[in-house]
Design goal:
Elements (H helix, E strand, L loop, with lengths): L1 E6 L3 H14 L3 E7 L2 H11 L3 E5 L7 H6 L7 E6 L3 H9 L3 E4 L4 H13 L6 H12 L7 E5 L4 E5 L3 E7 L2 E6 L3 E5 L3 H8 L4 E5 L2 E4 L3 E5 L5 E4 L4 E3 L2 H10 L2
Helix pairs in contact: 4-6
Length: 246
């Protein structure tokens, strides 16, 4: 059985998620429900849960602030949040899991299944990336946590040469000739990399603009990257690429 704690300041959200866990996730035992981050901290110390469902937006102390108060995080984390693009992007960037309110039962079942398959707690590196992303202080050698079939891999952004879509997965081609298979769609990857030196130049390709060696004109044309690979540029994205390079 998976021991769980629920932290959310909204009563109806707690009641709904509690009902969903009881109905759709029989392997989860909900130990207690907390209406504030302060209560959540006490419950974590008291119950030693396997997973914490943590609301992001709470008055006084939000979910992220609560995590900063813990000396260690020996449990899996599943954030719950309304549609906050900035918070969701930061959570994805650190390869942590989240549920969007109102919570869909299939999303909940899948999130719990991930905890069952990989019960490892959030790592310090993931949480550090999360906090840095939230506080807008990702500087220097920036890293992204990429969710893989085995868990996740921390990759410096400046080692990523390009990304290529394969249905619900994306291939990351990084320096050194490695290819990392990531369980994210290219659209999700595009949102993750927004604000960094990446551009989607085709419905199947995102490139690192710093790795472009040459552009060859054509209907859309194509670019040659630092690893000698070539990537087609679609007509609809050609102007965006040319604008970047003046």
């Amino acid at each position: 059985m998976i021991k769980a704690i629920l932290v959310d300041d909204e009563k109806h959200c707690r009641e709904t998620l509690s009902m969903q866990l009881e109905r759709y996730c029989p392997d989860v035992t909900l130990l207690t429900e907390c209406s504030s981050a302060a209560e959540g901290l006490q419950a974590i110390n008291q119950y030693n849960p396997d997973v914490v469902f943590l609301d992001v937006e709470m008055p006084g102390m939000n979910g992220f602030d609560m995590l900063k108060c813990l000396p260690a995080i020996p449990f899996a984390l599943i954030f719950t949040t309304g549609y906050d693009t900035y918070a969701i992007n930061a959570i994805r960037f650190s390869a942590l899991d989240y549920l969007l309110k109102p919570i869909d039962r299939n999303d909940l079942i899948n999130a719990v299944a991930k905890v069952q398959a990989r019960p490892a707690p959030a790592t310090n590196q993931q949480l550090d990336i999360l906090m840095q992303k939230l506080e807008g202080r990702l500087t220097g050698l920036q890293k992204i946590a990429l969710p893989t079939l085995e868990g996740f891999e921390l990759v410096p952004l400046d080692t990523i040469i390009r990304c290529e879509s394969d249905g619900s997965y994306t291939y990351f081609f990084v320096k050194g000739g490695r290819k990392i298979t990531v369980s994210r769609t290219l659209k999700e990857v595009e949102e993750l990399l927004e604000g960094h030196s990446f551009l989607r130049v085709h419905h199947s390709h995102i490139i690192n603009l710093n790795e472009v060696q040459r552009y060859v004109r054509g209907e859309g044309g194509y670019v040659i990257l630092s690893d000698t690979s070539s990537v087609n540029v679609s007509r609809s994205r050609k102007d965006a690429l040319l604008k970047v390079f003046g």
